Amino acid sequence: xxxxxxxxxxxxxxxxxxxxxxxxxxxxxxxxxxxxxxxxxxxxxxxxxxxxxxxxxxxxxxxxxxxxxxxxxxxxxxxxxxxxxxxxxxxxxxxxxxxxxxxxxxxxxxxxxxxxxxxxxxxxxxxxxxxxxxxxxxxxxxxxxxxxxxxxxxxxxxxxxxxxxxxxxxxxxxxxxxxxxxxxxxxxxxxxxxxxxxxxxxxxxxxxxxxxxxxxxxxxxxxxxxxxxxxxxxxxxxxxxxxxxxxxxxxxxxxxxxxxxxxxxxxxxxxxxxxxxxxxxxxxxxxxxxxxxxxxxxxxxxxxxxxxxxxxxxxxxxxxxxxxxxxxxxxxxx
Length: 334
Ligand code: KG4
Ligand code: ZN
Description:
The protein is α/β, with parallel strands linked by helices and 334 residues long.
C-alpha cells in the first residue's frame, strides 16, 4: 500500500519547502531557508519572508519533481499549508499550489500545518501508529496532542503565553546569541552545567499546559542581579540552565499525558524537538515507562514539505478536497 502521489508545499513561515510524497514515503524533500535574511533583523520579517517565497518557489518545485523523478502528469494531487502561519507567506504557497492544481485538473488540498507536524514521526517510522501522544513544540506553538486515530486529535494542553521556540529565541536574543535562538542555546549548553541556576518551572499544578513568559522575566532579573554582584555564570552554564528549565516542563507535561491516557506510543514534532537535550530526556523517560518514543530526524522536526504531503495523502484518500474559492487561514486551529 503506497498511497497517493502528492506534490506538497509548505510556506507558513520562513522556509520555502516543497516535497513529493507517495503516501508516507518521501520521494523528494527540498527547502530554501531564509534564516540568513532574517537573522540581521533578529526575527522573521513577514514582508521579507513572503517576497523570498515568491522568488524561490518555482525553481524549488522543478527541483522537487526532478529529484523525485516524477512528471506532474502522474501526480494524484497537489497540497499546500493553509494555516496557521504568516498570512503573506501562506498565500504564496497556497495560491501557487492551487493555480497549479487548477490548471492541471488535479485535486487540491489545503493542510493544517500542525497536522503536518503530527505526521512527521510517521515519515521516519512505519510503526508510528495511533493511539499516541505527540509533543508539538515550535516557534509558534507548544501543544500536547492526543492522537486517537489519524484525523482524530485532541489538544490536551498548550502554552498560555509564549511558545517554547519563542522562549528559546527571546532568551537567546537577550544573551546576544542571534537568531534563531534554539540551535544557539542547544550548542552552547553542550559544555554547560544545567544545574548551575534553578530557573522556575511554571504551571506545575496543570497537567498539560505550558507557560514560558515568566521564565524570561526570571532569567533577565537573575542574570542582571548576578552581573551586579560579580557572580555572573558562564554563557554555557546560563544556556544549559535555561534549556533545562524549558526541557523539564516539555518532558513533564508530555509524560503526564502518556500516563493519564495509557498510550504506548509517543512522538514529537516542531523545531524545538530538534533540541538534543529534549530528545535525550524524552527517550529516557519513555524507556523508564516502557513506551515507544518516535522522534523524527531534526530535518523532519522543522518545517518541511514532506509532512504536508503525508497529511494530504491521508485526507485525499478519504476523498477530501479543498474548494477552489477557499483562502488561507492564518489562525487555523487543530
Ligand atoms: O517548527 P519550526 O521550524 O517553525 C515553526 O513552525 O515555528 O520551529 C522553529 C523554532 C524556532 O523557535 C527555533 O529556535 C526552534 O524551533 N529550534 C530549536 C532547535 N532548533 C530549532 N529549539 C531548541 N533547540 C534546537 N536545536
Ligand atoms: Zn512548524
